[in-house]
Design goal:
With 505 residues, the protein is mainly α. Helix content is 74%, strand content 1%.
């Protein structure tokens, strides 16, 4: 039986009243959870897992799958409006989302760009999952430690030139992020590193408080500086004139032309990244944005470009869909959220693996069909709430400062359940503010902080497998191709400034 016929049968399963209700509930909860900094898809799925005990397995996984998937949409809301990423994949969205909403005075279009790109990327990811899921999962298995090391080396090399025109500043901040990521227990030997005698630092710097602080709380400090100018502006009776209706938030035909190419590229790339073990939606959104940097954008990335928002949002939604391929076909979770979903499947008596599609076709194809439904439901709900969300930006700065501060504190505390997370948030906020003040991009620091542990872990595993020989990076076909690309990027980056100087001279 063809996959298309099986998908139609899956829609028959997903379109029962119970499953539609579960899908809608999961989609709405995912938007809410995604928009709340500090919770994220992992905590959201883990918290709601007990609610599904009374459901049948198909209904339960449809609800949790929709929640995980729509969480990628929700993370962009606070990223665009408050410069606080709701979840780690939305970190990249803040780079262009917040400037587009505030500096370019197009908050509605920024949100709609994120929603439409999420829809396009997610649709591509779900279609690829439908027709190539098991094959992609097997391809993902071929990416061992050496392949992942080479892929992450390419990613880390791209970081330095990701934001800003000064690559030296990018390299410095990237190295700073790597140093911060090295704090805590060594992942393989268990030896403490850079903990400075502090027991709290044995676990390393927690990611969510660090991100909330360096992006969100740094913005609070900026707002405190801007408060006087805002008061003067309001005293003169000036307003931003932002349109607060859905009609006023609509994208023009030209906006769609700008949005579509990066969304399509990132949709395919994100799906592939989502299949890779341990890569996740955060790596997907970063790589989508890094690839867009190589293409022409109407406005420079980092200044409020539609292309930047589309690239990151399409990639993280596609990665979320792609992550279901190894989970269902091989029983291998690609992320922490995938591990929770895997636990749920086992709890319901299902054994994910190559035989799952044959032994439980109603379950598998019902879930895949529900992802199509969740994509549509989430897009509709997300568009409908845009007018209410934009009103956040019309709140006077004197009220915004305490509101955002409370959001930052609650988000930082909820992930660590201690004041340590809040302290990290405040300190990283000061660091983020000082970096911005001195024209150092904070994005390379955040992205290298995310990728450095993955790179270190995979590189050391590769050397253990090869007995310390570097030949492992050149004898395996996939690794060899990726290493050639890595050296080509370094070579081009070194030669390009020389050619520019010759041309100008």
């Amino acid at each position: 039986m063809s996959n298309f016929v099986l998908l139609i049968q899956g829609f028959g399963t997903a379109l029962t009243p119970m499953n539609i209700g579960a899908c809608v509930l999961g989609a709405v909860l995912g938007l809410v959870v995604g928009a709340m900094p500090g919770i994220g898809s992992l905590a959201g799925v883990a918290l709601l897992l007990p609610l599904t005990y009374k459901f049948n397995p198909t209904t339960a996984i449809i609800m949790l799958g929709a929640l995980y998937y729509s969480n990628m949409y929700g993370g962009s809301f606070s990223a665009i409006l408050l410069n606080i990423p709701g979840d780690s994949p939305a970190v990249v969205t803040t780079l262009d989302g917040y400037p587009m909403a505030t500096k370019r005075k197009r908050p509605g279009q920024a949100l709609l760009t994120a929603n439409m790109a999420s829809f396009v990327g997610g649709t591509i990811g779900i279609f690829i999952l439908t027709f190539m899921g098991p094959g992609l999962a097997n391809l993902g298995l071929k990416f061992g430690p050496s392949e992942m090391t080479a892929l992450l080396l390419i990613a880390m090399t791209s970081i330095s030139w990701l934001v800003g025109e000064n690559p030296i500043k990018g390299v410095v901040i990237t190295c700073f992020g790597i140093l911060l990521a090295c704090m805590g227990m060594d992942t393989l030997s268990g030896a403490p590193r850079y903990e400075f005698g502090n027991m709290y630092l044995l676990g390393g710097i927690p990611f969510t408080p660090f991100v909330i602080g360096s992006v969100g709380f740094a913005q609070v400090i900026n707002l405190i500086n801007d408060r006087e100018a805002d008061n003067e502006k309001r005293a003169r009776g000036e307003s931003d004139g932002m349109k607060l209706s859905i009609r006023g938030s609509m994208l023009t035909g030209h906006d769609f032309k700008r949005l579509l190419p990066p969304a399509l590229r990132s949709g395919f790339l994100g799906t592939f990244v989502g299949v890779l073990p341990g890569a996740g939606a955060t790596s997907g959104s970063f790589m989508g944005y890094a690839i867009q940097k190589k293409f022409k954008s109407e406005e420079p990335l980092g200044t409020g470009a539609i292309e930047g928002i589309a690239a990151s949002e399409a990639a993280n939604n596609a990665a979320a869909a792609g992550a279901f391929a190894p989970l269902l076909a091989l029983g291998i979770p690609g992320s922490g959220t995938g591990a929770v979903l895997l636990g749920g499947l086992m709890m319901w008596g299902l054994s994910p693996g190559p035989l799952l599609f044959d032994s439980e076709p109603e379950f598998c194809w019902g879930l895949i069909a529900s992802l199509f439904m969740a994509n549509i439901f989430t897009l509709i709900v997300a568009i409908c709430v845009i007018p209410f969300l934009i009103k956040i930006l019309s709140v006077p700065i004197k009220y915004m400062i305490p509101i955002i501060t409370v959001v930052c504190v609650v988000g930082a505390y909820s992930t660590s359940n201690s004041m340590f997370g809040v302290i990290i948030m405040f300190l990283s906020g000061i660091v983020g503010y000082l970096l911005n003040k001195n024209n150092f991009p904070s994005a390379p620091m955040l992205l290298s902080f995310v990728l450095a542990p993955l790179l270190e872990s995979n590189m050391r595993k590769a050397f253990i497998l090869s007995g310390g020989s570097i030949s492992i990076f050149f004898t395996r076909p996939i690794t060899c191709v990726l290493m050639i690309i890595f050296f080509a990027i370094i070579l081009v980056s070194a030669i390009k400034p020389m050619l520019s100087k010759k041309k100008n001279g």
